[in-house]
Task: structure prediction
Amino acid sequence: MHKLILVILMMTVASGVLAQGDPQPGDPGVGDSFLPGLGNGGYDVQHYTIDLDVDMNTGAIDATTTIEANATQDLSAFNLDFRGLEVVELTVNGEVAEFERNRSEMTITPAAPLGVDEAFTVVVTYKGVPNSFEDSAIPIAIGWNRYDTGIYVASEPSGAATWFPANDHPLDKATFTFEVTVDDPYVVAANGMLIETVEGDAETTYIFEASDPMATYLATVNVADFIRVEEAGPNGLLIRNYFPAVSAAQAEDYFSDTAEMIEYFNGIFGPYPFEVYGVVVADTNLGFALETQTMSLFGENVLENGFNGQLTIAHELAHQWFGDSVSPADWQHIWLNEGFASYAMVLWAEYKNGEGFADVVLANFHENLGSSTVPVAEPPVGGNLFNVAVYFRGALALHALRLEVGDEAFFNILRTYTNRFHDSNATTEDFMAVAEEVSGMELDEMFQTWLYKRDVPPFPEE
Ligand code: TRP
Ligand code: ZN
Result:
């Protein structure tokens, strides 16, 4: 009886103001617990085509981004994340659409609403000089960055919107095409396969196709006087590197372990997840490196970093499995990227130089932690997302897990995890569940100690 009244009441409401079938605006975020504004609801992007004309003298771009998406609800309006730059024209399904902008959110009202499951195309034409910025989550300039002799793009976690309109959250991966035109003799390096170069009078267009699903923050375009160097990797994998012409010989030598690293990681993590790999070395010094998908980004200064630099090279490569192929479902789970890539450095050191070396690196991690009491799996909102705990305590947590379950189960856990969540997303709970399933052990206490409690546990020993 009560139920019936409720149903009638709802039907009455539904036929009135809030008609149930009426298209609604998509959410302005995906509900990320660390960065709530990122991404948008109501649709799922399939493909981005990013067409850029870059003026290397002024730094300005003339751009068109085409987004092919599917509506996941009836939509009266939807958002894209987009910062700065002037929108010249915006169409949805070929018809001019209205839009409003508020900081990094752009709300688009198509001429006609979109139906659930409908495929639609958004074309945004825009121009201006892209600006990088510092997110509260990380104290470095993220997004599109210009330097004396070139451009690099490093966007983690929220910089993609500095150069293209996006559903900017790793939950919505898509494939990408990049068509970038620059004046000769500049060279463009972007994610994926170089499928065509079109020579103009004094300019060249470089067309790249990235056919593996990719999170928006991993998209990168680099411009400089690069030399492209190719080599064969394991199982016919193409390795193509972009080195600054001035330091190409030194860089080629410094990155010469890449094929061996891939082969080693193939064995312990499962098969390399993408169509191509390589690195791009920006023609400038950078205080970081980034695991941009299929083409990790480094600064020229890495060449002076000796064995530590080799560990960084292994770290970015390992991210292709941990972070890029398996992405965090929420930024809060960032240790699934950084802890794992940091532990991969330990594994590489161990493989290359013997067990004693792993202990040296691990001891260094433990020391670096100092008195940081950030719980690895729950970095406090508002703080630095890329804090020392998610890197080093995350790595030590994996080492503690390895000591607890033994080598065989440990590497089976890693391979099961990369296989189960490839081209997708995972949470800390997902990883813990795989660890318990594969080892057949109850690991709750160990994970609580290492991932959730504040106190730094003592150095893990056998
Ligand atoms: N993920 C990077 C690493 O390998 C660190 C990082 C986070 C970063 N955000 C970035 C690097 C932005 C460059 C730009 O540790
Ligand atoms: Zn990393």
Observations:
- Residues 315, 319, 338, 341 surround zinc ion (ligand 2) (CB under 6 Å).
- Residues 327-452 form a domain with the Neutral Protease; domain 2 fold (CATH 1.10.390.10).
- The CA atoms of residues 70 and 336 lie 29 Å apart.
- The chain has two domains: 26-324, 327-452.
